[in-house]
Amino acid sequence: MSSLRTMCVSLARLFPILPVLACAFVVSMALSETSLAQSSVRPPEGAVNTNSDGAVGGAVPGDALGTTSDSEIWRAVRQGVAGTVSIPDKKAAVLVQSDGESWRLMRNGPLFDFLGLAMIATLILLALFFAIRGRVRVEHGMSGTRIKRFGTIERSAHWLMALSFIILAISGLNISFGRELIMPLMGKEAFGPMAWFLKHTHNYVAFAFMLGLAVAFVLWVVHNIPNGKDLVWFAKGGGMIGKGVHPPAWKFNAGQKVIFWLVMIGGLSLCLSGWALLFPFQHHFFSDTFIALSSIGIDVPAWLGLPEPPYSVIQEQQFNSIWHAIVAVLMVCLIFAHIYIGTIGMEGAFDAMGSGDVDLNWAREHHSLWVEQMEQAEARPSAPAKTQPAE
Amino acid sequence: MKAFLLSIVVLLVVSLGAGFLFHSQFETSAETAFSSGNVRIQ
């Protein structure tokens, strides 16, 4: 009771100054609101977050009142929170993209190491094969009679594809390995302009490769449809392992068909990923592909430890970059083998793409069914002659 | 040889043509890429 009485006495003493306290409270609140409005960095009312790919859905941590600590805000930024920007490049709304660092570490680290080793290993294997097997000779010797194998259009398409691929490979390898391997040898002053020139060459020669690939597909797809003779060819090792073995084949044998389809599929994949790199942030090839595959039960992101799609446009570019490099180097390894067998690996093979005419004995040993077909066509009265004596 | 030379001609024509068509798209100026007419600072 005594404490209650004491409290009442104290309130009675404060009663005369209550109006003063009330005024002070109102004024302080008003000043506080003015101060808050002037220092606010909140986006204008109705502002739209244009990037919803952030780690917390684009929301500012703690909202605009800043009820979270700085560490929480910066942690969210570090994890990829997206803000709002008024410049055309909306990707700038993400200050830190952690996937970019992972991509950089993988690209400049193990990826390029393995790709470089794959090319070196291919060359070593081909050299070993050549040392063991030697050159595949025409067993019955050159006949002196030649048969037309490829016409001008076919050879032009082949060389268009080949030349553009070689230019793309050299310029692409410079992009990937030039900084580490070439620049120390020639110096920054010379490497810079050379890299600039090769980068632009890579961009524009790509279109010539696309054209060559398309023309070659149209010209040769009919001859590269698999058939039962291909199994026989594989069973006999393509005649490459032992001597005196010549499995029958039409215009393209099974090995050439494998190269054809790998070049077509790999080339198409290179064209698509390259197109996405040329015209960046406009395509979602990986999101679309992974979602389509997951609909039939193939969960590629789970196999590879990747985040689930859909991906941001920046992630798409990173995937494109890695995929483009992997497919390109695999095709370089494949083309090493193709160049080997077309030049030093097999006697008489280069003539097919050189002059277009091959020796009849070479053709009979490697494409016997095709030669029979041509001879039958030649025997018909209406068909023009296909073979001609050597000069 | 004729086929090889023809392929070189086609390669040059296609590459230079692509360069002529797409150079402006590949080389976006900083003015276009990083600013706009309605930039607002609050």
Report on this structure.
The complex is a heterodimer of chains A (391) and B (42). Chain A is mainly alpha-helical and 391 residues long. Helix content of chain A is 63%, strand content 3%. Chain A has a 3-stranded antiparallel sheet. Chain A is elongated, with a radius of gyration of 35 Å. Chain B has 42 residues and is an all-alpha fold. Helix content of chain B is 69%, strand content 0%. The N and C termini of chain B lie far apart (68 Å). The model of chain B has no long low-confidence stretch (mean pLDDT 81). The A-B interface holds A 41, 43-44, 86-89, 152-160, 162-164, 200-201, 203-208, 211-212, 278-279, 356 and B 2-4, 6-8, 10-11, 14-19, 22, 25-26, 32-36, 38-40, 42.
How many E-type strands of chain B? 0
- At CATH level 2, the architecture of the domain at 98-150 and 225-389 in chain A is Up-down Bundle
Strand order of the largest sheet of chain A: 2-1-3
Q: Show unreliable segments of chain A.
A: 7-12, 25-40, 48-56
- Please give the radius of gyration of chain A in angstroms: 35 Å
CATH topology of the domain at 98-150 and 225-389 in chain A: Fumarate Reductase Cytochrome B subunit
Order of helices and strands of chain A: HHHHEHHHHHHHHHEHHE
The first-level CATH class of the domain at 98-150 and 225-389 in chain A is given as Mainly Alpha
Biggest beta-sheet profile of chain A = 3 strands, antiparallel
Average predicted local confidence, pLDDT of chain B: 81
Radius of gyration of chain B: 20 Å
Secondary-structure-based class of chain B equals mainly alpha
User: Helix amount of chain B, in percent?
Assistant: 55-70%
Q: Could you give the count of β-strands of chain A? A: 3
Oligomer: heterodimer
Derived from helix and strand composition plus strand pairing, the structural class of chain A reads: mainly alpha
**Overall geometry of chain A:** elongated
- What is the rounded distance between the termini of chain A? 133 Å
Query: What overall geometry of chain B do the principal axes of the alpha carbons give?
Result: rod-shaped
Describe the largest sheet of chain B: none
